[in-house]
Write a structure and sequence with these properties.
The protein has about 120 residues and is mostly helical. The chain has one domain. The chain has 5 helices and no strands. Helix 1 packs antiparallel against helix 2, helix 2 runs antiparallel to helix 3 and helix 3 packs antiparallel against helix 4. The longest helix has 29 residues. The chain is elongated, with a radius of gyration of 17 Å.
Length: about 120
């Protein structure tokens, strides 16, 4: 049974998590940057590109997705013309943060799955 569950997670759920990471990285790269705060636009573009790259390879996925969610939440609150897309992308980032990178990520290759055994008292 354990082998079947592991195989299922690598195929269906793993594909979904990979698509979630790729979609979030694409949203980070493709969205037009409109300066809303007086930050240098080049610095924000480089940070967005670094976050997108880390999401694509799947290293530190919960932490990187949290930073991406914070970036989109700040844009949703302080943008010149806030749209529902910023808030929706912040929710997608939050989802990616809570679920993690999935089986096709460097997180899974480096750390793997951990089985938690609760000792009987």
């Amino acid at each position: 049974m354990q082998n079947a569950l592991h195989r299922y997670s690598r195929i269906r759920a793993g594909s979904g998590l990979l698509l979630l990471r790729v979609g979030l990285a694409a949203l980070l790269l493709l969205e037009q940057q409109k300066p809303s705060l007086d930050w240098p636009v080049d610095l924000i573009a480089w940070v967005r590109a670094a976050i997108a790259f880390l999401l694509l390879i799947g290293i530190g996925t919960p932490y990187v997705a949290a930073v991406a969610g914070g970036l989109f939440a700040v844009q949703a609150c302080f943008a010149i013309d806030p749209t529902a897309g910023h808030a929706a992308t912040a929710v997608i980032s939050l989802t990616c943060m809570m679920i993690g990178g999935g089986p096709w990520s460097l997180d899974a290759a480096l750390f793997g799955r951990r089985r938690i055994e609760i000792p009987r008292a």
